[in-house]
Write a structure and sequence with these properties.
By secondary structure, the chain is of the alpha+beta class. 12% of the residues lie in helices and 22% in strands.
Length: 358
């Protein structure tokens, strides 16, 4: 069954439907905290000791490439829409956005800002690109490929209620709080590359700010107190043809715990306990057929450059989940909700090759 190109693993089928149901519940009950009802009772039990190394696949089981995501979902300042790409990490049913921003390099805000509680970051500086983002030149343009948690840090709403809308696509709900497309120089101006906007309660996140993305610069502040955690991405090749595969290898250590994993009492919002909290109370993602990473990849590349010689990451030195044979290689499926310029995402979430809808 697993070799059938139309076979879609059950966890991926359930994840988006489960998430949509939880978001509807959050929308209806308003101020009641969603995680009080949906976080499993075993969340204090660790699923694994360290973050998994996961290769990203399409629904047909093929490993996706840089070219795949650029040609399907790249967003620019002029984009009026962009397809939503979502994958689970670090556990099953933990959705994350896979974003591709065209003609811009996502940079880190001033690193002297060390969060100890909720904070609003400064505008990105040009001092340094961020780690965990794939910067690459392809087809005459530069791209930033990044991933941010798809679980709102306010009450845990998930896609499609938490949604990325690019620069020329202002959601109706955000217009209600004062956002406009023609108010330059004012807080009402919708940002050039748009926002990740939560339709449940109006939380706002700016992907151009990377891992420090909580946005309070608009006409209304975000009810969320923390940025969406940044999933660290890397590739096994910076070939100009875009043939490199994409891997997730952790969560930005400066981020707060994923909202639905925050433990009460005694949980930490930031600090040493965050990783263990993010890895408890769920189910591990699936292992790859070549489950020992060294059989597939020993070196990855990420962040800090758009040159032909990006910095290398030694897989064995990243402190990833492993066993006696070495670092374990996992896999996670990237799904989409729509076609892009009549181009369907490879495979299909529903199991039919006629559509790529969720």
């Amino acid at each position: 069954m697993a070799n059938d190109k139309n076979y879609i693993p059950e966890p991926e089928k359930r994840a988006f439907l489960k998430g949509a149901g939880l978001s509807i519940a959050a929308l209806l009950i308003g101020g009641i905290s969603v995680e009080r009802y949906v976080v499993p009772k075993d969340r204090g039990v660790p699923v694994m000791d360290n973050f998994p190394l996961a290769v990203l696949e399409d629904p047909s089981g093929s490993r996706i490439t840089i070219k795949d995501v650029i040609e399907y979902a790249a967003a620019s300042k002029s984009s009026t829409s962009t397809p939503m790409l979502v994958f689970d990490y670090p556990l099953q049913d933990e959705p994350n956005f896979l974003l591709v921003l065209k003609d811009v390099q996502v940079t880190t805000p001033d690193k002297s800002i060390v969060p100890t509680s909720g904070y609003s970051p400064i505008s990105p500086s040009n001092k340094a690109p961020m780690d965990g983002i794939i910067y690459i030149s392809y087809g005459g343009h530069n791209y930033s490929i990044m991933a941010l948690s798809g679980i709102c840090q306010h009450l845990g709403c998930v896609p499609p209620f938490l949604d990325y809308r690019p620069g020329q696509s202002i959601p109706f709900e955000s217009k209600l709080i004062g956002y406009k497309s023609d108010a330059p120089g004012t807080p009402a101006q919708w940002p050039d590359y748009g926002l990740i906007y939560c339709k449940c309660h109006g939380s706002q996140y700016n992907p151009l700010w990377g891992g420090r993305n909580l946005y309070n610069n608009g006409p209304a502040s975000s009810p969320a107190n923390h940025s969406l955690p940044q999933i660290m991405l890397a590739t096994d090749s910076y070939d100009s043809s875009g043939s490199g595969k994409i891997y997730a290898y952790g969560i930005n250590s400066s981020n707060a715990v994923i909202r639905t994993h925050l433990q009460f009492p005694g949980g930490e919002t930031y600090g040493s306990q965050v990783k263990s909290e993010d890895l408890t109370g769920g189910t591990a993602i699936r292992t790859a057929s070549d489950s020992v990473a060294s059989k597939t990849v020993s070196t990855l590349y990420t962040g800090n450059t758009t040159s032909s010689t990006p910095p290398k990451l030694s897989v064995s030195a990243l402190g990833l989940n492993s066993n006696s044979s070495g670092v374990i290689l996992y896999r996670t499926t990237v799904v989409s909700n729509e076609a892009s310029n009549t181009q369907n995402w490879k495979g299909s979430f529903s199991g039919s090759t006629s559509t790529n809808t969720l």
